[in-house]
Structure formats: C-alpha cells, structure tokens
Amino acid sequence: MSMIKPIEVDWQQETGRLHIRYEHPGGRHPHTPAHRESVPVRAVLDLDEDGRVLDADIKGLTPTVVRRLAPYSCSSVTENSGPGVSLDADAAWLWLHLRKGPRDRQLRGDAHVLLDFRDGLLAEVTLTLHDARGRTAEMSC
C-alpha cells in the first residue's frame, strides 16, 4: 500500500500550494466518489535545487484522518525507495515521499490540507502552506 505513485505533482511556490494525485497498485486511479478530509496542520516541504518538492511532512493530523490513513502505517518507504506514503499513527504524522534527491531548501509552517480518498485509498492531496500571519511561508536553508 505504501508504494503508491504520484501521477501528478503540481507545486506553486507563489501561493504555497502543493497538489498531488496518486496512482495505485496495478496502475489504476480510484474512481468512486471521494471522501474529503480538511484539516489544519503543520507542514514541512523539502525542495531540491530546481525547486521541485522531494518530500512533504504533514503533522498534527486528527484522529479521524489517522484512522482513514491506517493502511499506510505499515510502510516500507525510505528516502532511497521510490515514491510512497508513510504514516506514523502514534505521532499523527504523514510523510509523502515524492522523489529521491538532495534537499536544497526547506519550507515549514502552518498549513491547510485536503485529503481525498476513493475506494478507501488516498487519491489526492492538496496542501497550502502559510506562516502565522496567513502569508506564504518563507524558505529557509
């Protein structure tokens, strides 16, 4: 379950918006109507030197969201593996590994995340990263 692949990664640094659509085992994308969870979180995005997102760490998920993400808690995702999704249920922390590569910069701050589930699987993630004043977070080295 952890090795689902992103079929679309759209990062808009100007707005702090990251949108990811996933393909699932067998190359399919779930098609039944989505269930959506919307939660405020803390997020960290790792970017490479070209500004592409390597990883997204989403922290502070609600118990309801953690239960929905339970299939991803037995994950074999590592920094050297292919893309995947990993959940630390005890820490309410979701790691979205999008691609391998060295981290050049990091964005962190308060965020809002929308998680769409289809057929019980994570199908789409839309994360908007903001600082405490509601503006797009600044990059740090």
Describe the structure.
- The relative contact order is 0.29.
- By secondary structure, the chain is mainly β.
- Strands 1, 2, 3, 4, 5, 6, 7, 8 and 9 form a nine-stranded antiparallel β-sheet that branches.
- It has one helix and nine strands.
Helix and strand topology:
Blueprint: E1 5-12, E2 17-23, E3 35-47, E4 53-59, H1 63-68, E5 84-88, E6 93-97, E7 105-118, E8 121-130, E9 139-140
- Share of residues in helices: under 10%
Give the N-terminus to C-terminus distance in angstroms. Answer: 33 Å
Shape: globular
- % residues in beta strands: over 45%
Summarize this structure as a short list of keywords or feature phrases.
mainly beta; nine-stranded antiparallel sheet
Could you give a quick summary of the protein structure above?
Helix content is 4%, strand content 50%. It is built from one helix and nine strands.
